[in-house]
Design brief:
- This protein has 181 residues and is α+β, with helices and mostly antiparallel strands.
- The protein has a domain at 86-149.
- 41% of the residues lie in helices and 29% in strands.
- It has helices at residues 2-24, 86-111, 122-146; strands spanning 33-37, 44-51, 55-59, 65-69, 75-84, 149-156, 160-165, 173-178.
- The two termini are 40 Å apart.
- The model has no long low-confidence stretch (mean pLDDT 80).
């Protein structure tokens, strides 16, 4: 039993690492929505128009064209769609619901009397209140989080543009672009 759990864990870890490595190799191409970062200033989001050897052109949602010096761009992120916030909502709801359930279980345990006909051990009341609150809060949080989505950004690079002296005949300039698929 332990070996199968260990092997499954290794396979999942290897799969996650290979997927993370594939996402790190993403190259932003013209027409894709990107987020350009420049040092400590705010990032700019828009459609990549072109990426030359010295300038990067970006079209924003207000149809303005922005030009950036390629050397000043410190990071590029590629928009890969949206993702649901159900997981984040479930975790928040689980914690908040668990704390509320813990408080209610403690209040219930403190308010009962040992001479009552229906007496429950205080530890059981606190535990059941905490677990019930966490379960209910997690479910409500997951449902609420599923209704909201946030953009999913993946780290990317700009296409590499190289200029090399010497064409086929040794005279002129050769221009090349390396694309990865």
């Amino acid at each position: 039993m332990f070996r199968s759990v260990f092997v499954i864990g290794l396979v999942l870890t290897g799969t996650a690492a290979s997927l993370a490595a594939q996402q790190a190799d993403a190259v932003a191409t013209p027409g894709q929505v990107v987020r350009l970062r420049q040092g400590n200033t705010a990032s700019s989001v828009g459609t990549l128009l072109s990426a030359g050897p010295d300038t990067v052109f970006l079209m924003t949602s207000s149809l303005d064209t922005l030009a950036f010096l390629r050397n000043s761009v410190t990071g590029v992120d590629l928009l890969m769609g949206t993702q649901s916030n159900a997981g984040k909502g479930a975790v928040k709801g689980l914690v908040i619901g668990g704390l509320v359930g813990l408080a209610l279980g403690g209040i219930t345990a403190a308010s009962q009397d040992e001479s009552d006909f229906f007496y429950v051990d205080p530890g059981q009341l606190v535990l059941s209140g905490t677990l019930s609150g966490a379960l209910l809060g997690g479910a409500i949080g997951a449902i609420a989080g599923a209704g909201s989505h946030s953009p999913r950004w993946v780290s990317a690079t700009l296409p590499k543009v190289t200029v090399q002296p010497g064409a086929v005949d040794g005279k002129g300039v050769a221009v090349g672009m390396r694309l990865r698929f």
